[in-house]
Q: What sequence folds into this?
């Protein structure tokens, strides 16, 4: 069985946000991790695109750097193909946990 590790996140975040962002990078790229992230994407756990023309399209987390402590997590809209700063407090997560290719991997697999 795979172990689920908690990512070090600011203690000021409510527990409901921790559940959304609590998987390590290697795990979310595994088949089991991708399936979990797909379900979260489909129900809109990561938010929706702020563009009106995207009609509340669900977004996917993305990092703009593979290096830690460079930038916080952003969200990628598969409809308009733009990257946005998330509105939720979960933006306190380091973007390197998802990497620059996670949305594309998720969309290719499913």
A:
């Amino acid at each position: 069985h795979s172990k689920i590790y908690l990512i070090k996140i600011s203690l000021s975040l409510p527990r409901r946000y921790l559940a959304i962002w609590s998987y390590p990078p290697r795990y979310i790229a595994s088949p089991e991790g991708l399936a979990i992230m797909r379900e979260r994407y489909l129900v809109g756990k990561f938010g929706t695109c702020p563009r009106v023309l995207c009609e509340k399209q669900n977004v996917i987390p993305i990092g703009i750097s593979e290096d830690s402590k460079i930038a916080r997590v952003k969200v990628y809209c598969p409809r308009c193909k733009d990257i946005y700063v998330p509105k939720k407090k979960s933006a306190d997560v380091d973007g390197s946990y998802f990497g620059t290719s996670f949305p594309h991997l998720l969309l290719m697999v499913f």
About this structure: The first helix runs from residue 15 to 20. The two ends are 23 Å apart (CA to CA).
